[in-house]
Please model this.
Amino acid sequence: MNHYDCQTSAEHPDSQTCSRFSPSQGWHIADSPDWCRLASLYRQTPIATISSLFSIPGVEDGDFFIRECYEDLFQFLCRSFSNDKSVLITGQRGIGKTVALFYVFLRFLSERPRQDIAFVDREKVYLFVDQEVYECDITDVPYLPERLDDRHPLMVFVRMDNSSGHLPAIL
Model:
């Protein structure tokens, strides 16, 4: 199934503008200022300009420090992703899994501007496509965008509320 929306310009009837994704296809533009701010701050921003402190949407405890081991994790995930492998990070509460998840997410967001990224955050799915952020409820995901090519598969990050100890049924 092709999810490209092409329109002919009235000014230039011989040309078409095509976008890979449209909010009319079941998704809508995200209304969360935190998630939209992340996209505007970090999409195509070199990681060197990202401060050593950053905030996480939905967490009001302040800023988080970037630990050196997060770089090792990022490099490991880059290798795993390029080999079509999935990674699950587990551990006790409070050891930094969520902070590491967001650090890696922000690195991919900043360093791979053509990469489509989905972020599952409890009951919402945020989809970062080009310069836009779309959202939908986790139980109502109509579809995810097709891959542009084999070098750019959809990257998915999942932030779980592990109080139940189970993955959401949709996953």
